[in-house]
Write a structure and sequence with these properties.
Blueprint lengths: L1 H11 L3 E8 L6 E12 L3 E6 L9 E3 L6 H15 L2 E12 L17 E13 L7
């Protein structure tokens, strides 16, 4: 039973990759938001991150750094190309946390850089009419 509990806790705190889209009501364009996050040991060694590979079977990968701008941007560009739309108005957000908080509280564990959290988000607008030169 102990190993199942460890597996459940690991999955609960593992990384996650999401790609969400929504249609903008006035223009009919599409908004896209891609998020990936993961956990690192000493802020360097990836423990569990969201699986940014296209068509991935597992939502989480172990010991592979998929929380990078290159991987997230690659997924956004690939989605735009498949949809045949122009990608515009890109914005990104990075979040790093080097002090791990005790879950459910705002109390940090006083060992910085042992277990760290990293998140990256990239959003943009996919224009319906692909115009040359724009």
């Amino acid at each position: 039973m102990g190993k199942w509990l460890i597996a459940a806790v690991t999955l609960a705190f593992a990384g996650c990759f999401t790609l969400e889209t929504a249609e903008l009501s006035k223009s009919g364009d599409e908004n896209i938001l891609v998020t990936n996050y993961g956990w690192y040991l000493f802020n360097v060694i990836p423990l569990a991150t969201g699986n940014a590979a296209e068509g991935a079977f597992a939502p989480t990968v172990m010991f592979r750094n998929d929380v990078t701008m290159e991987k997230v941007q690659g997924r956004v560009v690939a989605y735009a190309e498949r949809a045949g739309k122009a990608l515009r108005d890109l914005a990104y957000h990075n979040h790093d946390s080097v002090m791990f908080n005790i879950p459910g509280t705002d109390l940090p564990i006083p060992l910085p850089y042992v277990l760290t959290f990293r998140e990256i988000q990239l959003s943009g607008v996919l224009k319906n009419n692909v115009e040359e030169g724009r």
